[in-house]
Amino acid sequence: MARIDVIMPQMGESIAEGTLSKWLKKVGDEVKRDEPIFEISTDKVDAEIPSPSAGVLAEILVTEGQTVAIQTVVARLETEKGAAVAAPAPAPAPEPAVAAAVPVAATAAPVAAAPVAPPLAPVPSIATGNGHSLEERLRTKSSPLVRKIAAEHGVEIAAMQGTGVAGRVTKRDILQYLDSGAPRPAVAAAALGAHAAPTPEAWAGDRVEPMSKMRALISEHMVVSRHTSAHVTSIMEMDFTRVARIRAARKAEFEASTGQKLSYMPFIIKATVDALKAFPVVNSSVAGTSVIYRRAINVGIAVALDWGLIVPVIKNADDLSLGGLTKILNDLAARARSKRLDPREVQDGTFTITNPGVFGSLTGTPIINQPQVAILCIGAIEKRAKVLTGADGEDTIAVRTCSYISLSFDHRIIDGAVADQFLGHIKRTIETFPDTAL
Q1: Which residues on neighbouring strands pair with residue 384, listed in sequence order?
Q2: Low-confidence ranges of the chain (pLDDT < 50)
Q3: Which domains does the chain show, CATH number per domain?
Q4: Which residues on neighbouring strands pair with residue 292, listed in sequence order?
Q5: What is the reported pTM?
Q6: 5 flagged as catalytic
Q7: Where are the beta strands (DSSP E) in 257-319?
């Protein structure tokens, strides 16, 4: 018999730890190679992790709900001699060259509170090929939000000892450090001021349940975004009658030839991509006092799950036809609901679309998905009575298929006029889609 280690995988280049949220097998169970064995949660994705080998689950070393560093052994399998063995852990992705003056905004997983010390003595280093220690990489690379906050306040993260994995400085660490008296600009001080409401107490008969890892992260991300961006929302009504007719006329043929169901969303994505090309500031990010205009157009599509919300990303959406968008959209949504997304498929979005209209909502004012600067919200697409002016100047009442589309945008860099022009561009595209679009 042979024993094989099952490790916590690295779910994305910037992720240093993961939470083992659920065991799908118990000690003594037989497992097949590539059969899901446990679920993990990170600040990017919930995913099922396959078994590296066929065998019997002999030992569980990490319990449900426990957060551990990547490469930690979480279990051991017992296999027959000569059976397929675990594939070696992939080498860490090479570090991209990033200018220190252009930090990337994101969010970091919460870690248990502990007082953070000011700069301490050097931490023992494990050398890596690029000349940086593993500990330094974990401290300075695993929490983009921390890097952003540190850059804004002139704090050197590498000189700090944090409470996270391998001394990683967490968001709570950096905020506690700043609150301890480190100088910071007045505007930032206001943003990080005391906003905490009193903690409610449970009453007799109440049910108290801890948040899931995903729900806790969503909660943190939303609060961070509201404190980061100056949120403003514009709303327009758009006439989908033309798109509805194209879809009704072509959906049977389209499904027969592609095997894909044709929804309104690919038309919306296509119109949005065209607008992002025309107004590149909406496809940007804010880095301190600089604006990063993204060359890639990577559109995230919010997918509602029974246990939370996830945003898989359609990479290089501007290179895809309506058919290509439909195929990728349906595939990503299906795998998001079955926890089979690759972590890379929820990263590097440059713009997000959310669609609460499928649940009947007329419109919404969504919170921006950091570090993006805008998010598009699609309301219910439904038939309405509209007043139309004919060629002869006479007004008539007609039944039209319409929707309210809203754009929440960051007023730090996007003015209301630009936001409305962006929405107007989408409106014109939707209302004049060519019959040959498919």
Answers
A1: 400
A2: 82-142, 183-194
A3: 2-79 (2.40.50.100), 103-193+214-228 (no CATH), 231-437 (3.30.559.10)
A4: 285
A5: 0.65
A6: no
A7: 284-287, 290-293, 299-301, 303-305, 308-310, 313-314
